[in-house]
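Working notes for the structural subgroup meeting. M.R. asked for a predicted model of this chain before we commit to crystallization trials. I am recording the input and output together here so anyone reviewing the notebook later can reproduce the run.

Input as submitted:
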Amino acid sequence: MKRGWTSGKLTVSIHSKRVLLTGMGLIALSFFMPLLFTVDNFQVRNFLYLALKNGERLDLIDAALRLVALNAVRALPHYCGAFLVADALEFRWKRRDAWYFNAGLILLLLYATYRSIDVIHGIYYDFGLPAVAAALFIILFDKLDYKYISMGKKTAFVAMELIAWQFLDIMPAAALLPVGRGEMSQSIKLAGRLLDGENALDTIGGMGILLFAICAVLLFIMLRDENSLREMDALKEQNEAIRAKARINEMRSRTYQEIQHLVHDLKSPL
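Returned structure, recorded in token form:
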């Protein structure tokens, strides 16, 4: 049963209270991620220092991959949280589906989380191209409304798509784009220039994007097919329930007519 609020022409309904609370919990968790996961315990600075000290490009690639992993781990809770919050709500404007409110809610939650983390921890999260692109793909996935897919599988798709975009931050070839403007991203790209490792960073970044993008596409196709099959099964169950109810009503009607005939016969004189 849906619960919601109505204000003028806008109606907001809650599909699932559990999904809504889970999303809000993940957004709250994102404020603790900079404390739990840092460039130090991921050893990003350590491998960057070794790369510059020894002139070793493998250490530079290691530092870049660790930074991608760190950014993905930090970002995953608030991206999944924003997606789940929007997925749990249904907006209707003048009794019509208003998915653009869900899209605006996702962007608003992500931007507010980024800026709040900056204020609380003094860590600048760049809301650049990777963040916007990831948000747009999440909005598109949410608009498809795969209501028969579990929350865990939806979260897995968001994670794959999010990780793919994180590789842009370490690619010198993407310098003209609004990506990789964080302190560590710039340091790694500068080290790549000093060590003549820009091509290596671009190659690793391109391979990472391609790999996780393919995984995201394959997972998306699987989820689409699964949702279609489950939707067909649900329609079959509804049709069977309607037919069963019709048969029961027919039996009741026939029984009622037979009782009426029996009563009429009993009232007739012998």
